[in-house]
């Protein structure tokens, strides 16, 4: 059985960043296992720009961003297995994988980084009634056909869901000559980034229908028309508001699901809120030596944040291999009022330096003039004012080490409260 | 000139072709769709029924126990996924319990082995997720689960290997009889035959009418289903039927599938057309409640697909396996509703007897093939996996990550006797796209492999039936 210090599962942004960071921090033998035929993951099909503004301080396309990391991987002594599928990961860090080139293999690692990304929610998962014709596909699948394979998959397109891929694909289909008859948001606001709403819809005159959903798809072989209705505050269809869209294609951008089937097999505990692993401040899961980062941990809106989180995971792997398992007292991070989830979910007190600890989270609705309040029991240990918050934008705050030292309990609660006097 | 032309290549037509291919005969099968198993065979609850539902005295009741045994044996020989599993009917109230006592008596009359009443306690011990409000039920240990389309494909393929011909995308338009010979006109040429077998499923009455036949009319009794992610599979371990007191409806079933998913359905409603398989959200909301009444722990957030199928029922209410009264040498296999999947091989055997009685000489072939072997990669042991990849590296390349389907399996399927030409045809043969991402990742790859192996453009690859195109053309050529 071949041995490695670190095996990274997935060669997208998260996997490459974690491998590079681990290597730079002194981990000697690193292997990235990638199922596709190139490094880069989904970035390779994201040929639009807008990547890298935070991480590289310049604007790049998806493939360019991926290439920056792929270059670093190539420059460092990191081994890469392409076209290789991982079939199983075990609690004691064995990785079973297979490829045409190397056949069926069992590998042993000292540490593992889970960086498998996510998959898209499908029609079945969102329960759209009607016929089952061709022409219904996830936005990501359409993106692959158009950007990677060079084929169009529709001429008159309706998009359901305002996730970022849906917004990007609205513009992409339009640029390729298709008519985009509309994009439907099931809630009262778009889910994706504000900048994508402006640059992909408004700039191209694509109609956005807030609080609308598809109620029926009609078409024996290919979609012929789609029935759409307005929805109320509970996202339930309002009878009598139905209208008909003449189109041949429906693209779905209705959510991403972290791909954690392998993680579960290794005994990694998952958070129902994120569908990703419960992690400590250093991205380590409940299984010592197994770390998680990127979209397999929680769905990010910017790859820049994926890379930053994965840097941290890589550094933590180096520390784990050098000094072993961490112990000590633990804070549990709790979702307070108006907070959907947090990452990390647990913080080891002794593992937080002066720089402090980053906490990422999302809010379930749109809020103005609020305060992010981090409390230890009744006592606020730190707070951050925000003029505006929305579910589409992940929030990140850093709790300084000195403030954390003041906390005496074992629970930190992150809540959104009104600003004083407002 | 064919000795026998079979119209329709669902499970019944395929079983008929397989049985007839034992004999020295020229057999043709005409299928209107571009693949076999494309009607009721692909949209049902994938069950081998135990036999207690069939009313004693009916054809169904005579064939069911024998059919169950024959079908299970055939699955083993033809390498089709099939598993023995008990059927359980559960009652939530006294009228349902009354019906269940009746079903047990009926089952005993039909020769269903081991059928008995079971107590609430035994139900909950066997199926801890069943609603504790259950008051009792029946257990029939000999039922089963099966991959219905794979059984149909296996039967049709093996018939072809034994010399039968299957003509896909060949729709029968008219049938005339001249000097005792049938002339069958299709969109794809004219075929002549001495005998015709009508296995047209939901279209059987229309085909029969082409030769002036009457005597039965289709009832399009549809049903909807929910298919769940594999993480819901262990919700139940047997076929759990919610007892139905409605006539002709066996009740909603909750079961693990041979693929390791959980399946729940169907409901029961009538539609006007034989191909109206649209689902309806109101009906499905009621079905969902009905399912949750039986197994309240099922997580509907884990649904990966919903679908509807149509039972090929008729006003006769029983199987119709007989020579047409209006047209000699024309054999109807009509009313092929459930449990036709279970009975298909027994039905085909009975059809052979009828053909013999009609004067067709059945002389056994010297070398009849009745076995089949294929590689299902994810079912192999680690040693076997190593060996098949070493022999053919395409088995090392995973295409469908959810179901671990390799390129080797897809390429092998494309080169089998009945050529799959569509993405759904690949799904039926290899399970690629059957899993939790529903082809989101492997869809484009399957299109690419099909185009490459068939020597056509990706634009020509369909999702399923004629007209179900996926791609509209190369980019930059939209207008």
Jot down its keywords:
heterodimer, A: 422 residues, alpha/beta, FAD/NAD(P)-binding domain, 3 domains, 7-stranded mixed beta sheet, 5-stranded parallel beta sheet, 9 helices, 28 strands, 22% helix, 34% strand, globular, B: 479 residues, alpha+beta, D-Amino Acid Oxidase, Chain A, domain 2, Arc Repressor Mutant, subunit A, 9-stranded mixed beta sheet, 8-stranded mixed beta sheet, 12 helices
Radius of gyration of chain B: 22 Å
- Backbone shape of chain A: globular
The CATH class label of the domain at 82-143 and 220-312 in chain B is Alpha Beta
Uncertain residue segments of chain B: none
Instruction: Sketch the major β-sheet of chain B.
Output: 9 strands, mixed
What percent strand of chain A? Answer: 25-35%
Extended strand count of chain A: 28
CATH architecture type of the largest domain in chain A:
3-Layer(bba) Sandwich
Write down the CATH class of the largest domain in chain A: Alpha Beta
How many structural domains are formed by the residues of chain A? 3
Rg of chain A, alpha carbons: 22 Å
- State the helical fraction of chain B: 25-40%
Walkthrough of the structure:
The complex is a heterodimer of chains A (422) and B (479). Chain A has 3 domains: 2-119 and 257-325, FAD/NAD(P)-binding domain (3-Layer(bba) Sandwich), CATH 3.50.50; 122-254, 3-Layer(bba) Sandwich (FAD/NAD(P)-binding domain), CATH 3.50.50; 344-418. Chain A is 22% helix and 34% strand. Chain A contains 9 helices and 28 strands. Chain A has helices at 13-24, 62-75, 123-126, 139-149, 164-175, 194-201, 261-265, 303-323, 401-405; strands spanning 2-9, 30-33, 49-51, 60-61, 78-81, 85-89, 94-99, 103-114, 118-120, 136-138, 151-152, 156-160, 179-184, 208-209, 212-218, 225-230, 243-246, 249-252, 256-258, 290-292, 330-335, 341-343, 346-348, 357-362, 367-376, 379-389, 395-399, 411-418. In chain A, helix 1 (13-24) runs parallel beside helix 2. The termini of chain A are far apart. The mean pLDDT of chain A is 95. With 479 residues, chain B is of the alpha+beta class. Chain B has helices at 11-20, 59-77, 94-110, 120-126, 148-161, 204-209, 281-294, 340-357, 382-391, 407-414, 423-430, 443-454; strands at 2-7, 27-30, 47-48, 82-84, 87-91, 116-119, 136-140, 144-146, 165-167, 172-178, 181-186, 189-198, 218-228, 239-242, 253-256, 262-265, 269-270, 303-314, 320-323, 330-334, 398-400, 405-406, 473-474. In chain B, helix 10 crosses helix 12 (443-454). The longest helix of chain B is centred in the N-terminal third of the chain and has 19 residues, at 59-77. Chain B is globular. The N and C termini of chain B lie far apart (48 Å). The interface between A and B is large, with 51 and 56 residues.
